[in-house]
Amino acid sequence: DIQLTQSPSFLSASVGDRVTITCRASQGVNSFLAWYQQKPGKAPKLLIYTTSTLQSGVPSRFSGSGSGTEFTLTITSLQPEDFATYYCQHLYGYPLTFGGGTKVEIK
Amino acid sequence: EVQLVESGGGLVQPGGSLRLSCEVSGFTLSDHYMDWVRQAPGKGLEWVGRTRNKANRYTTEYAASVKGRFTVSRDESKNSLFLQMSSLQTEDTAVYYCASSSRASWRDFDYWGQGTLVTVSS
Q1: Does B27 touch chain A (CB under 8 A)?
Q2: Is B91 touching A (CB cutoff 8 A)?
């Protein structure tokens, strides 16, 4: 099974900060890596798919990059509504797995 | 507008069974892969299982933690996806989401339901 390790698991940041979250896969996942945002009590929301494609309606301050086993989600100029938990997910073979999550909190 | 609405959650004793439903609207169920994802209280997301679309003969895949105990199925006439859960354990306590993709690559989940809570406890 492919394991996804997100880092950091928690980060404290201020409005306007640039934030980078890393997702490392235990083996290559081609480009089949997605990122989700989840707020308390809500279903996850897709932000990025196939590594770097921005989902329709998602602000352009979100971007994804990477290849093979190392991927990043970057939020330029963090906004108040971005404080949430972020998950990566691979969709390359079964089982599909999620990373452990990164909680972004207000400093 | 696409909607996925789960139902069927509740309190069940260890060893018991429960069937969850996910009613979909706004797309043709038979065209889509459909997945179940769960989230234990205060924990991260865990993929549970998948049923492929009609073109791929509705074949299924499961996480190791549920294989042999859970079954994903669908009823096109009811526009519904199901998750039959048996031999439930306390560690199956979670919010269960159904999810799917608008893209034929099936490499992301941009459609999600609101979730239904399953509590396994004596």
Answers
A1: no
A2: no
